[in-house]
Amino acid sequence: MSPFLQAGKPPLILASGSRARAKLLEAAGLAFIVQPPGLDEAVMLEAVSGERSFGPHDIAEVLARAKAEAVSDLAPQAYVIGADQVLSLGDRIFQKPDGMETARRQLLDLSGKTHALHTAVAVAKDGEAIWAETTVASLTMRKLTPEFIGRYLAAAGEEVLASVGAYQFEGLGVQLFSKIEGDYFSILGLPLVPLLDTLRREGAIEA
């Protein structure tokens, strides 16, 4: 961590247990506290998905804001980062798989198709979101055989359960795709460049 970036600045909190997001912030030279919001993401997604006026783009941003605000309520003066990803295939929205069999079925459903990955990030302070942004990436998965999917899951292990769509793009998951259109950082879980720009603008990190 480069100390000059945050010397004398308010604390920074990542409202997420995602190791991929933490690694992105660490690589960018930021010091932060990890404080998952403790919200039931499956229940939240189900509730928000019931709003017919909400598309995947809106759902991702609502959830990112909710996570940031939940932690911000407990940490006055800190800048809190919340994030969420929603994977959509046509009208269908995917959740994180709850087990390896679900992961296998999800990969079979995504095989040979192009899906959209909506990645939202929000920054909250004093219990209220002060900024949010959502990006969309288009990912085309190769036509995968059931045998390949089985070998992939055995090699990747249960870490894929932390990833919506059952792939981790920063690792073996990159082998699943034939075409990618979108921001690399967003695919990993965090629209990093606009987030850093916002933190600089807010005075949370050195400009």
Provide the number of structural domains: 1
Radius of gyration: 17 Å
Count of individual beta strands: 7
Classified by CATH, the class is Alpha Beta
Could you list some keywords that capture this structure?
207 residues; alpha/beta; Maf protein; seven-stranded mixed sheet; 7 strands; globular
Describe this structure in words.
Helix 2 crosses helix 3 and helix 4 packs across helix 5. It is built from seven helices and seven strands. A hairpin with a 2-residue loop joins strand 3 and strand 4. Strands 1, 2, 3, 4, 5, 6 and 7 form a seven-stranded mixed sheet that branches. It has one domain: Maf protein (Alpha-Beta Complex). The radius of gyration is 17 Å and the shape is globular. By secondary structure, the chain is α/β, with parallel strands linked by helices.
Topology readout:
Blueprint: E1 12-14, H1 19-27, E2 33-34, H2 41-49, H3 56-72, E3 79-89, E4 92-94, H4 100-110, E5 114-125, E6 128-141, H5 146-156, E7 177-181, H6 184-188, H7 192-201
Parallel strand pairs: 1-2, 1-3
Antiparallel strand pairs: 3-4, 3-5, 5-6, 6-7
